[in-house]
Amino acid sequence: MNYLRKKFYEYYLKAEIEAPYRIERREFAFLFFNESTMKRHISFKNKEWLLRYLKTSIPAHVYYSSAYYNNPSAGTMREKKWMGADLIFDLDADHLPNANKLRYEESLERIKEELKKLLSFLIDDFGFDEKSISIYFSGGRGYHCHVHDKKILNLGNQERREIVDYIMARGLDYSHVIVERSIYSKTYTKTIEITPSSPGWRGRIARGIISFLEEVKSMEREEAIQLLKSFDGIGNTIAQDIYDGLDDRRMELIREGKIDQMAAIKRLLKPLIKELAVKLHSSTDEPVTADIKRLIRLPGSLHGKTGFRVTRVNLNNLEDFNPLEEAVVFGEEMVKIDVKKPFKIKLKGNDFALKEGVVKVPEYVAVFALARNMANIF
Amino acid sequence: MEFEICQIARYPFIEDAKNWVKKEKIDIQEVLYEPIYERARARAVERVEQALKYGVIKEKALLDEIECMMEIFSYPLARLIVAAVESEYLVRRYALAEAKKAYESLKKEETGVIQKIAREFGIEAKDGMVHFSDYLKFAPTWDIKWKLVNRVMDKGYVELSNDEICRLIQEAIRSKIQNELFYMFAPPDINKIFGELISKLKNKLLAKEIKKVEGISEKDYPPCIKNLIAAIKSGMNVPHVGRFTLVTFLNAIGASTEDILKIFSSSPDFNEEKTRYQIEHITGKISGTVYAPPKCATIRTWGLCFPDELCKKANHPLLYYRLKRRKNELSKEKIL
After folding, report:
1. Does A248 qualify as catalytic in the annotation?
2. Catalytic residue check, A291
3. How do residues B71-81 score in pLDDT, each as one tens digit?
4. B241 closest CA partner among B318, B319, B293
5. Residues of B with Cβ-Cβ distance to A176 under 8 angstroms
6. Which residues of A touch B148 (CB under 8 A)?
7. Residue A311 in contact with residue A86, Cβ under 8 Å?
8. Cα B120 to Cα B227: distance, rounded to the nearest angstrom
């Protein structure tokens, strides 16, 4: 048995797996070491059978369906008979701009920021109870968010897509969010009214504009103008006008939600909204969240390409959660590996910078390096 | 709150209508054959004809209880007629027309009435707030202003005006009536009474479905377009870009909105109102921008390209169409 598989076996022997709700209604799917085809259409009548399967077949990746089926082990969708599905959000570092330039630890931190935005949308806008939301570190480069709520159980693809569009600000039309008003006093002035206390996108955008302008005001003139000029459609003159116009009286009005003479504000909107939206997927045609029959990693299982455990994150503990400590399940025992590709990683609080060649490392580093295919066992 | 007979007459699809009919102990045979129900039968015919002709059923002034009664009975009769014609097109058009009629009346009702009818369709509307899950089931989100992202939502509840709640109910009514009619079989008695109308409608709708668009030659479509049409007709879920390709292509070769609608109407999840809106958006009738069909390279990246021999000579589906058309016309001449 190869080393990785053996380690996974040892893990599954004692693993505490969190069985999904209504496990008997879910389809399971597995990928094995050195095999490229996925084994699908498997179901388990309870957690014990699932655990037994994990111990005997030692999969590299374990997935289950977000959907509930009448007959989850049937080979076709028609025979499976879809009964409903949880809502799943997949936040992956791949969805970030410049993802490949970020270090692993950095990208995980950035994704955490996206996760916080997502949680605010789910709780404040969609009104989901915190109890119905579960967060997991994916074992790879991101987090999964599961929403289990009877209100959304029966929503179809189209309706789920609307939820995703909401969170990603896709199709957002400013004229529905921002109220423009012409006011007459001596001359006509066009004002934009924004209400920071409004619910939903309206309030989010208002708060976004206000805090952005606060930030601009607090900056040095040169720096602020540079920042403003980085927006599409804002040139030197407009940038100067915005910055110079931000006196205390104007700022006071802005905080109340009144923005006058600032047609240029509209130019800030698009990039600001982009910042406020959650980066759920990279391409618009990816059907991930909206898909009512997708597969998701099983919490408590191991990710075959990292050896990390899919780990539950306590909502109140999100800030302190460090996946590179808490999702590392293997031991300290020293193992000799032959590094093929040099790499750096910080695991369990220890920095490792490995060069090519044979080296002794703790088991948890060995598993990671082997799973990433950056080393062989020596 | 129980509805009065005149309210039931405006919303003959609600539970109270069924209960009222039960209470009155009048059966369908009586309404079909008794001379005193002639007015109900005439109104039933009117409902179907108006639905087909105008896409909406006009409201009728109901002056007394008897007129209300006739109005109520005309509804199940109209449904039986539609079912007897056995045309999907008519079912869709009729369901939409009934729903629009109800919407027009609902808009004028007090909040309490709107709430009660909303509740019948599982829409809980409190103080102008509707839960997003109910909203998403019925809102025409293909229209930008109905997209959830353009709505004010707080703690799961979407803010809506009474009018907008009525619009949600309209969609709920439409889908209810349509689903019911798709699975309804008309008893043979219907043909005895309304036989003439039914066969007239059958012929008319059939002719409409057969009529080929002049000047458009389907056999000359490039394989990508043929594939898309086949996929839509067989009920496969064609991605947005595929629908876009098809609509822009058909528009470019001179097909009308109606012609294009006809192709989509065979798709099982066809929603006439939505599809019409989308087609008119792409063909510039709403947006003012006429979108051109994508070129071959784009279609290829979308994974919709299934080239044949002639495709080698074309870099655009329209060019393919012209080439093939010319080729076919030339060969025709030779034969002649």
Report:
1. no
2. no
3. 999 999 999 99
4. B293
5. 145, 150-151
6. 162-163, 165-166
7. no
8. 42
Name the residue type at position A267: R
The residue of A87, A120, A124, A126 whose CB has the most chain B CBs within 10 angstroms, and thus the best one to mutate to test that interface, is A126
Distance of CA A249 to the CA centre of its chain: 40
Residue among A78, A123, A125 with most chain B CBs within 10 A, to mutate: A125
A contacts of B154 (beta carbons < 8 Å): 124-125, 127, 199-200
Q: What count of other Cβ atoms lies within 10 Å of the Cβ of residue B7?
A: 19
Q: Which of A162, A177, A201 sits opposite B141 (nearest CB)?
A: A162
Per-residue pLDDT of chain A (378 residues; tens, 9 = 90+): 689 999 999 999 999 898 999 999 999 999 999 888 999 999 999 999 999 999 999 999 999 999 999 999 998 888 999 999 999 998 988 778 777 788 888 889 999 999 999 999 999 999 999 999 999 999 998 999 999 999 999 998 888 989 999 999 988 987 777 777 766 666 666 667 778 888 999 889 889 888 998 999 999 999 999 998 888 878 888 888 888 888 888 888 888 877 765 667 777 888 888 889 888 765 444 556 667 778 999 999 999 999 999 999 999 999 999 999 999 999 999 999 999 999 999 999 999 999 999 999 999 999 999 999 999 988
In the residue annotation, A285 being an active-site residue is answered as yes
Q: Which residues of A touch B (CB under 8 A)?
A: 124-128, 151-152, 155, 158-159, 162-163, 165-166, 169-173, 176-177, 198-202, 285
Answer whether A159 sits within 8 Å of B153, measured CB to CB.
no
CB–CB of B149 and A159 under 8 A? no
* 3-class DSSP state of B312: helix
Taking CA–CA distances from A126, the nearest residue in chain B reads B156
Strand stretches in A95-176, DSSP E:
133-137, 142-147
Catalytic residue among A173, A232, A285, A320: A285
Structure tokens at A186: 């001596």
CB count, 10 Å around CB of B125? 25
Query: How many Cβ pairs closer than 8 A exist between chain A and B?
Result: 74
List, edge to edge, every strand of the sheet that includes A39-42.
A39-42, A28-31, A61-65, A295-297
d(Cα A141, Cα B309) in Å, to the nearest integer? 45
- In angstroms, the CA A265 to CA A258 distance is 12
Amino acid at B95: A
Q: Tell me how close the Cα of B117 comes to any Cα of chain A, in angstroms.
A: 20
Structure tokens at A354: 């490995």
**A357-362 and A334-339 as β-strands: parallel, antiparallel, unpaired?**
antiparallel
Q: Could you tell me if residue A233 is left (phi over 0), alpha (psi between -120 and 50 degrees) or otherwise beta? A: left
The ipTM of this complex is 0.87
CA distances to A153, A218, B60, B125 from A150, rounded to whole Å, are 5, 46, 42, 18
- Looking at the DSSP assignment, which residues form a beta bridge with residue A336? A360
Among candidates A155, A158, A166 on the partner chain, residue whose Cβ is nearest the Cβ of B149: A166
Q: Facing residues of B186 across strands?
A: none
Give the rounded distance of the alpha carbon of A42 from its chain centre: 28
Lookup: tokens for B296? 């071959």
What are residue A133's phi and psi, to 5 degrees?
Answer: -110, 125
